[in-house]
Amino acid sequence: MKKQLLKLTLFVAVLFIASATQAQAILWTKDAIYRIGARGTTLFMTIDGTTTPVSLKWAEEITTGDASTQEFAIVGHRTPAAAGLMEITANVGGNVWTMCIDPTTVADYPNVTLTVEQRLPKEVEEADWSGLDQFQRRKAKVDANGDPDAAGSNPAGAVNNALFVQAGDALKNSRYGVIPSAAGDLVQFDGGGIDVIDYHFVRDLPTASVKSFSADAFTISNPVNNFLNISGETSKINKVNVYSILGGKMLSRKIDNQNNVSINVNNLASGLYIVELVGESSSFTKKIVKQ
Question: CB of 26 within 8 A of CB of 198?
């Protein structure tokens, strides 16, 4: 009897802890890879490749196999039209997908639908919003558990729990404010109340680094077209690896005492990659752009 009571007590405690964890606020805190969830639901922003064109929808969390359609890098925009704006991209099947406003819905701004396009965020000049891909992390008032509360004073500090999108200086303040009712709903923003987004941290972004190799020991072509060219102390290199910006290995080549290295990367889609040069006890990485 005592054993049964102890098991029941432990079971209730586990349920309580799980419930409390679920209730906690899930926030954006730094440039990284996140799953983007709708607070109060079990749904996540998901790239749907079954539609033509490809669309962005709400779907249940992918818990097994490849979850890349729900994993988004949220970082500072490479060419922001205004300070503090972000870009949101995913790497699915070796292709870069950029989250943006569906251009067919801009006329109804701030009531817009979000989608994804197979491209990098648009390189723009100052005050150029034509890429429709500039987002802004924002805050919605919540209680201590992270749930909406107009009188709440949370979150505090450099954290965020809401998301805005902008299409121009005169087209501001479209925000996530349409809570999905079911899986399959399109991702829609409006100009109404600010609803809460859950930013589920997945992992840090890969970073360039130098281990033992001198930073000026190699010259790596950048940007890259059909061939990745490497010169310098290439006799110290045993292997060259190329990774997507989300960390997936796209190719690997063994190198045997070559003075100059040229690797065919024609099959790689346009986008941002990380090249890793591997020696006996050292490595060197560098970000490149494949055109």
Answer: yes
Q: First vs last Cα of the chain: how many Å apart?
A: 69
The yes or no reply on domain 26-203 and CATH 2.80.10.50 is: yes
Characterize 154-193 residue by residue with b for buried, 16 or more Cβ atoms within 10 angstroms of its Cβ, and e for exposed. Answer: bbeeebbbbbbbbbeeebbebbbbbbbeeeebbbbbbeee
Q: Residue 226's closest CA among 262, 172, 178, 173?
A: 262
Closest CA to 127 of 85, 162, 75: 85
Distance CA(131)–CA(144), nearest Å, equals 37
- The residue whose two tokens read 């790596």 is 220
Six-digit token pair at 119? Answer: 């491209």
C-alpha to C-alpha distance for 131 and 118, rounded to whole angstroms? 12
Q: What is the helix (H) or strand (E) element at residue 4, kind and residue range?
A: helix 2-23
Question: Domain 210-290: which CATH class?
Answer: mainly beta
Q: Tell whether the model's pLDDT for residue 9 goes beyond 60.
A: no
Give the span between the Cα atoms of 32 and 232, in whole angstroms: 32
Q: What are the tens digits of pLDDT across the range 189-216?
A: 999 989 999 999 998 887 655 555 666 7
The type of residue at 68 is S
